[in-house]
Amino acid sequence: MRSPIGNGRDDSSLFGITPQELACQILEAQFLKVPVPRESIQSFRLGSVVSLKSSAVTQGLAKEIALRAGMFNASSSIVEKVCSSGLRAIYEASSDIRNEGCDFAIGAGVDVMSGVPKEVNIGALTDPITGKHMAVLSDGKARELGFTREDYDRYAVESYARAKKHLYDYEHDGYLAPVILNPLSGSESARIVNFDQNVMIPDKKLEKMKKMIIGGCEITTAFNASKYADGYGNLFLASPRGAKKMHLEPLAKILAYAEHTERESKDFIIAPAGASLKAVKKAKKALFNIDAWWVNEAFPAPPLYFFDKIPEAHWETINPTGGAIAFGHALGATGVILCVNAICQARREKQKYIVVSLCNAIGEATAMVFEIL
Description:
Blueprint: H1 19-33, E1 43-47, H2 61-68, E2 75-79, H3 85-100, E3 104-112, H4 118-124, H5 134-144, H6 149-165, H7 169-172, E4 179-181, E5 191-193, H8 203-209, E6 230-238, H9 240-245, E7 252-261, H10 271-282, E8 292-295, H11 301-309, H12 324-327, H13 334-348, E9 353-360, E10 364-372
Parallel strand pairs: 1-2, 1-3, 8-9
Antiparallel strand pairs: 3-6, 4-5, 7-10, 9-10
Helix pairs in contact: 1-2, 3-13
């Protein structure tokens, strides 16, 4: 389950909510949906990046959320692997089930980018090796690979179109929980947010954004890059024994997880292909068995490179309902949100095997293979 996605700025639909409040609201909805006692959760792994520097956070963000959500028996920890934080958190939670004897665990991610100073967000997206913004690194590497502004814009147009077409699928299918924002004064009624804000940017504004080249870039614009975002997501994980005991009907099974690293910071945009190839091999599946590839759209280059590197992945099967260019990129939460979206859509389309992959800073990427049940 996941939250709606705010735009990560001062006019975010989720502006003013703390990471703890956002997480607890979605967990409340999750426990209403999955009839497992909260005290039965033995592991809570939380991916987060910028929210760790929020004034709302003092210490032990993961444990604080676990306790506020009633999971007082959960061993809790933060996973900080930049854009891959959420996916890594899912892996660590699943490892607790596989290796530590847990029956129930939650892998989650949260980042409220509108809740931190501007310099915090900029710092989180600045490469410490070269001192360059990740957009600039990506832009240079993309041009080395032969990608053009036209390639970037064409890909972005499709991401927006796909996301808008499927905008209401997630709430309709029970994967998105509305968020209630407290009123600013006693005279105002509470406001309910149940939509992904970035996806609803008007076409006229998108046209203006096409002309807004990001500083230091040549082909990357406010239109074709991912946007700041606020969001939370989690996967509720169970051992076969735990699922049977509580009569739970699983949605999917984690088959494999892999990480891949390249030589230079700028190579992060090509790393998802390597991570995905490793994960599919670990899962003992053929590439043609994969029905959909969900490659995080930090920029268009990662999925565009994916086409070239893995012929079995083609236009229709990569990010079939859009990605972070349209939805927004809530850093530590995106890996989980991407998994939630992918599982939702795979079940809608009756697909069998899917891959979720994210590039992350300093030349790395992660990938996970799911079997849809």
